[in-house]
Amino acid sequence: MHKPNDTTKKVNTTGAKTNEKPNALSSYFSHHQKTYKATFKQLLEQPLASFFTCAVIGIAFVLPALLAILLNNIQSVQHNWDGSAQITLFLKKGVPAIDGKLLSETIAKKPSITSSHFVDNDTALEEFKERFELQDAVDYLDENPLPHVILVQPDKSLKSIEHIDQIKNSLLKFPEVDGALLDVMWVQRLNSITELLQRATWVIALMLGAAVILILGNTIRLFIENRKEEIAVVKLVGGTNAFVRRPFLYMGVFFGLGGSVIAWILINLTLFMLNGPIQDLAHSYQSNFNLSGFSFESTLLLIILGMGLGWFGAWLSVRKHLDDIEPT
Amino acid sequence: MIEFQNVMKRYQDGYEALQDVSFSMDRGEMAFLTGHSGAGKSTLLKLIMLMERTTKGHVIVGDQNLSKIHKRQIPYFRRHVGVVFQNHRLLYDRSVFDNVALPLEISGVNPREIGRRVRAALDKVGLLSKEKLSPIQLSGGEQQRVGIARAVVNKPPLLLADEPTGNLDPELSEEIMSLFSQFNQVGVTVLIASHDLALISHMAHRVIEINDGRMVNHA
Lengths: 328, 219
Description:
The structure holds two protein chains of two kinds. By secondary structure, chain A is α+β, with helices and mostly antiparallel strands. Chain A folds into two domains: 35-80 and 189-322, no CATH class; 87-183, Alpha-Beta Plaits, CATH 3.30.70.3040. Helices cover 70% and strands 7% of the residues of chain A. Chain A is built from eleven helices and four strands; from the N terminus they run αααβαβααβαβαααα. The longest helix of chain B has 16 residues, at 170-185. Helices cover 34% and strands 25% of the residues of chain B. Chain B is an alpha/beta fold. Chain B has a domain at 88-155. In chain B, helix 3 crosses helix 4. In chain B, strand 9 and strand 10 (214-216) form a beta hairpin. In chain B, the strands form two sheets. A six-stranded mixed sheet of chain B has the order 6-7-8-3-9-10, sandwiched between helices. The A-B interface holds A 1-2, 4-5, 7-18, 20, 23-24, 26-28, 30-31, 34, 229-230, 232-241, 243, 326-328 and B 49, 51, 72, 75-80, 83, 89, 91, 93, 102-103, 105-111, 113, 117, 119-121, 123-126, 150, 152, 154-157, 175, 178-179, 182-183, 186-188.
């Protein structure tokens, strides 16, 4: 048995609690640092299990992220499209070109119309021949079968199809006009598809987000289970709930971060694999559409979201299970 | 330092561990709590630690009525009470040093101060040379001394022990008890639950006996 020496006497004579106020903040941070290092080490001790958890989270992130990217690309197509439908007015046979031109100028002055362009039937035929390489076939025709045409561009601010349709109907009232064509069906369809995708993305993101939280909650629950004795002892020697929670919250954040990194890799791999076929497809439409990938902002968002979800999942689990562990 | 006023504790299953217990201990006093197993010794200590709450009556520790301490404040209260357990309750995934450092880390003591105080506590129990070992490499008596170092490292004014010598042979038990006496000599109030009557009779300290949840022989 050791006899007490000077140092220890000093320690024990005070008998009262000590306050370390000036160092409280630095010791708080130093404890955080210690906790996350220890937690990280703990996760590395079971590399495979930790990797699987991260991978599950990562895969859950991939689907909504890819949908969001798809949506983003569709929306960029919509933005590139000049925003309004074009109305094609076919003039009646026998209306002279000069009248057509005058009518075009009149229409251009109307409100809610940006521009109007008159195309006489000869020019149209030339274009037709060139475009479809039907030189010979056209030469067989006795007369030009095409009518004069006015291409009307409604105001770009008019997004609703109904509105553009109204304009089309008002243009039909001109006596020279034989018919009008408003090719808006595809715009309508694209809009509906975009909206559908948007909602689907949200629903899937919400469901998979919930799945991530559940997976994490369960994983953390197992860790809590394994460290029951430690938690009880920490509580016995005066550990607050925040202190007990801390390592588990860090764990959730690390899992979320790992999941985000794996998701990032998977997303970029997918985009890389899809890019070739998409280029081909775009090329066949004479478009040089480029699949826009994962921007720096999106990456940042993914990581923050991942860590946030991880933290939240851990928090829920810890909240539910820590209270059950009372020292006995 | 400790005052029990007509304390009754009934567990949820209806078992009455304590019935009408009243006693008090002065600051700086040392006492043994005895009684056969199941008499309510552990329950009594748990009430002081706020591991359990009284069903009736009041427990006052220091100047605080424990019934009035909110759940959230329990951790802060416990930092002023050192506890030693029969089975040590050490954490085997970390070194002796880290085990003893735990209460200080929890209280937010800065790391340099932690090192100094942990070594002082380990020195006091004679284990300074073993700070880097895992508790599992130590003998039962040594493990109990680590438990004691952990209980006193925060310099609590009150030290509780629940059968601290329960698993030790008589010689080691006496060592452990003399260690408690030393803490008492520097002003710490010490309450030790033990049924080792032979050992207790050696030591000239007050004995509080309970039997079937009631005070006996309240000296």
